[in-house]
Design goal:
This protein is mainly α. The protein has helices at about 10-20, 25-30, 40-60, and strands at about 1-5, 10. It contains 3 helices and 2 strands. The protein has a two-stranded antiparallel ribbon. Helix 1 crosses helix 3 (about 40-60). The protein is elongated, with a radius of gyration of 15 Å. The structure holds FE2/S2 (inorganic) cluster. The site of FE2/S2 (inorganic) cluster has 12 residues, from loops. FE2/S2 (inorganic) cluster binds next to loops.
Amino acid sequence: MYICSCHAVTDGQIKKAVEDGTKTFRQLCRELRCCTQCGICARYAKEVFDEAKAKQKTSESEEPEDTDSE
Ligand code: FES
């Protein structure tokens, strides 16, 4: 789904950017150029970004623990 119509940025691109290590929303906007023209997409882009970040944190904390304690 297109989030930013000015620069044809999709939610998939935003999620991928987070997976690839984009740390801040500002960095995301710089990399994908979303929110840099009319700004209408900012709210939605931030929602997708925050959601992807939260998901990333959840999956990191679900990593199996080291069970080598004998
Ligand atoms: S819709 Fe993203 S900057 Fe215009």
